[in-house]
Specification:
This protein has about 325 residues and is α/β, with parallel strands linked by helices. The protein has 10 helices and 10 strands. The structure holds zinc ion (ZN).
């Protein structure tokens, strides 16, 4: 039995038909974790959908109304890049409920997973890039509203920039809460030890956002995160890990989060169809271990979500996501 919980529902399946997004990956990750004895049935917890009130902590009432009444414009639906249906709305509300539950469990057990979620391209007023609702932002705002946390840090290692996350949290303050741990503005540039990337800093808010992503990739417009690491095409394991280490150290020097939300995208993998980095399966597991080790050393709880993963062989995406659970098991075992 694991020392932490895995939040999962069979209803995480996105009803999008044949699509580059492997909608069945969540069930396959669940089955793989059981089959390989990484987890057992009692490690899984079933979520409830988020309430509309929770969703409205992040998303605009007009947008939520359109989703609930099936009145998105053709353009809005096209931008989301997944076909609208009421069942799809339910799946996203459920994913957001799963991330809330994972965040709550992380505060108890140091780490918890949503075997889903990580929809980091959703904005307050529209969906993009396979993302309708920003489950991670909803979880953060819900826990802040419940006064379980004051601050959070997102660590986004999906190959694509976390544009929705950056847009939602840039410069937003929660007025009733003081921010003793945050410098008012930290703007500067820091070089990394690894070759080829570029790191930008700018932070002002109660949620600190870090995005490590391939520069030459979707989205074209990348609103500023607190730290953006723009990586060149084809970067491999060692350089990537050096940049991640650098970004985590830099972020945690500037900011003390009550919770880390790790967006563990599988798409920096070298065999990914929508990514252009060159990480190996081993490199991706080392990435996970690094995030967990840093969080554990500082006693900061971590909530994990999965985001993207479009490997030519779906099994590889499943393996990468399962390995993230194995990495947590190893790091948090003692
Ligand atoms: Zn992605």
């Amino acid at each position: 039995m694991l020392s932490f919980k895995l939040i999962y529902s069979d209803d995480y399946l996105l009803p999008i038909g044949a699509h580059v997004f492997p909608a069945e990956k969540y069930r396959r990750v669940h089955d793989c974790l059981i089959a390989t004895h990484v987890a057992e049935a009692s490690d899984f917890v079933t979520p409830q959908p988020a309430s509309d009130q929770d969703i409205l902590l992040v998303h605009k009432p007009d947008y939520v109304h359109k989703l609930k009444t099936g009145t998105l414009s053709a353009r809005e639906e096209m931008e989301m890049e997944i076909p609208y249906s009421p069942e799809l709305v339910h799946a996203f509300w459920l994913a957001a409920g799963g991330s809330i539950l994972a965040a709550q469990h992380a505060l108890k057990d140091q780490v918890a997973f949503n075997i889903g979620g990580g929809f980091h391209h959703a904005f307050p007023d529209h969906g993009e890039g396979f993302c309708m609702i920003h489950d991670v932002a909803v979880a953060i705002r819900r826990l802040q509203r419940d006064e379980k946390i004051r601050t959070a840090m997102t660590v986004d290692c999906d190959v694509h920039h976390g544009n929705g996350t950056a847009a939602i949290f840039s410069g937003l303050r929660t007025p009733r809460q003081p921010l003793p741990s945050t410098s008012a503005t930290t703007v500067g540039a820091a070089g990394g030890s690894a070759r080829g990337g570029k790191m930008r800093h700018a932070h002002d808010g109660d949620v600190f956002t870090i995005s490590l992503h391939q520069h030459n990739n979707y989205p074209v417009w990348k609103p500023h995160s607190s730290i953006d690491v723009d990586l060149p095409d084809g970067m491999g394991d060692d350089d990537y890990l050096a940049w991640l280490d650098n970004a985590l150290s830099s972020g945690l020097r500037q900011f003390e989060p009550d919770l880390i939300c790790y967006i563990a995208g599988a798409d920096p993998y070298r065999e990914d169809q929508l990514g252009g980095l060159a990480l190996t399966l081993e490199g991706l597991k080392r990435r996970d271990e690094l995030v967990f080790r840093v969080a554990k050393a500082r006693n900061i709880p971590v909530m994990v979500t999965y985001a993207g993963g479009y490997a030519r062989q779906v099994e590889d995406t499943v393996t990468i996501h399962c390995n993230t659970v194995s990495a947590a098991r190893e790091v948090f075992a003692s």
